[in-house]
């Protein structure tokens, strides 16, 4: 059997190991160390943000954003339904209530019209949410002009889940720089990885400094261990930040290759009846972190699950889209606003192998297996 092809495995440049070796040589294994500040500065520079704190995961970054926003039990947070559970779990950690908003069919991200109707209704009944959390899915930005306009009208804070959107553009701006705060993830299969990690960014220094303190067990700046509030052990290690600094040097290369991979799939499979590929919205740059294909079983003759299993038989990993949060048993008690857009995307969507180290020969192999199924 051929070697396994994974969905989106880590792709190191060589630079990471050099920086890890330097950190070992300097004995900056712990605590903290210079790579942390360097990684934070590089990411700020790249996306155009003022302040950042590197943490242990994207989920931790979202949790910190909610903590420094002083979210109270029973506050509502509006969040995209089509996302990974990492967007929503921190809302539950706070004792707050997620309200799930459906996707719009073009970008698959939070539907600004549904959001507007929902905020209007909430404003009338006097219970606006504490924050709105749009998610930028699979490397495509949500429609931030529309979302920001509505949220500004109702004076509701925006926290962006940009975990899948490093390298993405909305017009000439990076998603993650529109809201009050934003979270990035460097989990193993993201466009760049630190093996595990995340970053919270904001232009508000006080918020990031508060998050930085919370992430280090809320230690007060005195010699003895003094604590005025409950803290978390969420800081990224200097070794992982060294990997992050190395990965930043190849981020634009990774974006280029992800886009090439998408174009390769779309060109060879896009003409087959029943197979469609999500378009890049005219407002931005889609990184195609994952290439996603929609499968109409009536036209193609097989459904996305049959394709997934056939690829699996060939030792190739593919994956359905995120199962919408309002369909998750664990979140079934929370409100959902929308129709069946996210639901039907989930039914039809398949994420294809999109690792930036994939060769054209490997892509050809994947493509010919799918072609042979028609
Ligand atoms: C990966 C991801 C997260 C969580 O990031 P971790 O680093 O895995 O905790 C949150 N939201 C979305 C949309 C993600 O894809």
TrEMBL record:
GO terms for molecular function: pyridoxal phosphate binding; transaminase activity. It comes from the Bacteria. GO terms for biological process: polysaccharide biosynthetic process. The active site is at residue 190. Keywords: Aminotransferase, Pyridoxal phosphate, Transferase. The keyword Transferase applies. The keyword Hydrolase does not apply. Pfam families: DegT_DnrJ_EryC1. Its cofactor is pyridoxal 5'-phosphate. InterPro entries: DegT/StrS_aminotransferase, PyrdxlP-dep_Trfase, PyrdxlP-dep_Trfase_major, PyrdxlP-dep_Trfase_small. Gene3D superfamilies: Aspartate Aminotransferase, domain 1 (3.90.1150.10), Type I PLP-dependent aspartate aminotransferase-like (Major domain) (3.40.640.10). The modification N6-(pyridoxal phosphate)lysine is found at residue 190. PANTHER family: DTDP-4-AMINO-4,6-DIDEOXYGALACTOSE TRANSAMINASE, TRANSAMINASE. Belongs to the DegT/DnrJ/EryC1 family. This is Aminotransferase class I/II-fold pyridoxal phosphate-dependent enzyme. It comes from Phototrophicus methaneseepsis.
């Amino acid at each position: 059997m051929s070697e396994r092809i994974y969905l989106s495995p880590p792709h190191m440049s060589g630079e990471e190991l050099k920086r890890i070796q330097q950190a070992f040589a300097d004995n900056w294994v712990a605590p903290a160390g210079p790579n942390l500040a360097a990684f934070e500065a590089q990411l700020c520079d790249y996306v155009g943000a003022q302040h950042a704190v590197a943490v242990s995961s994207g989920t931790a970054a979202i949790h910190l954003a909610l903590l420094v926003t002083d979210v109270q039990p029973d506050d509502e947070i509006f969040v995209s339904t089509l996302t990974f559970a990492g967007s929503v779990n921190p809302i539950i950690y706070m004792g707050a209530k997620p309200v799930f908003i459906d996707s719009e069919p073009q970008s698959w991200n939070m539907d600004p019209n549904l959001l507007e109707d929902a905020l209007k209704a909430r404003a009338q009944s006097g219970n606006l949410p504490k924050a709105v959390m749009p998610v930028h899915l699979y490397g495509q930005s949500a429609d931030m002009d529309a979302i920001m306009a509505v949220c500004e009208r109702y004076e509701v804070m925006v926290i962006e889940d940009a975990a899948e959107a490093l390298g993405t553009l909305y017009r000439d701006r990076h998603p993650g720089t529109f809201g009050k705060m934003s979270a990035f993830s460097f989990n193993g299969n993201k466009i760049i990885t630190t093996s595990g990690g995340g970053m919270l960014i904001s232009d508000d220094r006080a918020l990031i400094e508060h998050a930085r303190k919370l992430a280090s067990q809320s230690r007060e700046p005195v010699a003895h261990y003094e604590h005025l509030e409950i803290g978390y052990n969420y800081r990224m290690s200097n070794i992982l930040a060294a990997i992050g600094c190395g990965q930043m040097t190849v981020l634009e290369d990774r974006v280029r290759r992800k886009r090439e991979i998408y174009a390769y799939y779309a060109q060879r499979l896009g003409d087959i009846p029943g197979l469609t590929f999500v378009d890049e919205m005219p407002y931005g740059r889609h990184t195609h972190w994952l290439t996603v294909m929609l499968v109409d079983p009536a036209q193609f003759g097989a459904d996305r699950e049959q394709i997934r299993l056939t690829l699996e038989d060939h030792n190739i990993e593919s994956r359905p889209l995120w199962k919408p949060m309002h369909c998750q048993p664990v979140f079934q008690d929370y409100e959902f606003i929308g129709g069946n857009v996210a639901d039907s995307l989930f039914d039809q969507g398949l994420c294809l192998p999109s690792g930036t180290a994939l060769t054209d020969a490997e892509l050809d192999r994947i493509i010919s297996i799918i072609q042979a199924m028609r």
